[in-house]
Design goal:
Elements: E1 5-8, H1 14-19, H2 36-47, H3 71-74, E2 81-84, E3 94-96, E4 99-101, E5 111-118, E6 124-128, H4 135-145, E7 152-155, H5 166-179, E8 184-185, H6 189-199, H7 216-223, E9 228-231, E10 239-244
Parallel strand pairs: 1-2, 2-4, 6-7, 7-8
Antiparallel strand pairs: 1-9, 3-4, 5-6, 5-10
Bound molecules: manganese (II) ion.
Manganese (II) ion binds near residues 9, 86, 189 and 190.
Length: about 260
Amino acid sequence: MSEQTTLIHGGFYPLFFKQHPEGLSLLDPLQHKGGGKRAERARRMLRTRHVEGGTGAFVALGQEDSTDPKWGDVYEGQEGFAFYGHDPTEGEVRKHPFAAGLDTGCVFGGRLTAHVWSAASGGRKIIIGDIHGCVEELDELLKLLDPGSSDKYFFLGDVVDKGPDSLGALDRVYETLYGYPGSVCILGNHEEKALRYHRKGKVDQFKEAWLQDVKPYMLAMMGVMPYWHQIPQDLRCGELVQVQAKEKYCPAYGEVD
Ligand SMILES: [Mn+2]
């Protein structure tokens, strides 16, 4: 297993590694845009939760059966230790042999989670799970983290939708990316969907009104979010900083994507 950390919003299905032993090095991190098979595969990775037990193929949300494992339980560490979002829990980090899920369901009344890795030489690397418009909790988390000028922030995507203030959350992520050079926000399926509606001129058909008020700089930021990002260090040994949601903004897990 390599000494690196991979950030991905959804996950990897084992069939991908069977078909492409060279792994992510094969892929353009912006190739979710546009059409064709490669863009479709990228969009599958943004949405991966369960994988088919027999073949290791991607299973769409709601199509899984009781024998289909979560991807993290069968991931063998081909791309190093992976941190992911997308699959909410009720406040607890989901742990696997070579991966950890940091979407602790803030927007569902759970918690917003940061995994903090500290170097002896100073400067921390801080990975933050799905925000979904919970800007008050994000502000509280950033305050608790007490940022230092050499820290770097890594957001796992799904900054927007479901919660109270998608535009505020995008704004805060923007400030953080530009305030702490080397920081990265990867793409979530919710940003991908918003970009797709915007590109096609279907903003009025998007399920949430914030997209009608989105600012050009926010679109520019979302447009360069990669659907995966790698850091040439193993960041798995760190500590958690968590903030409890102030309310249950979204009623139930149910139709969660
Ligand atoms: Mn998601």
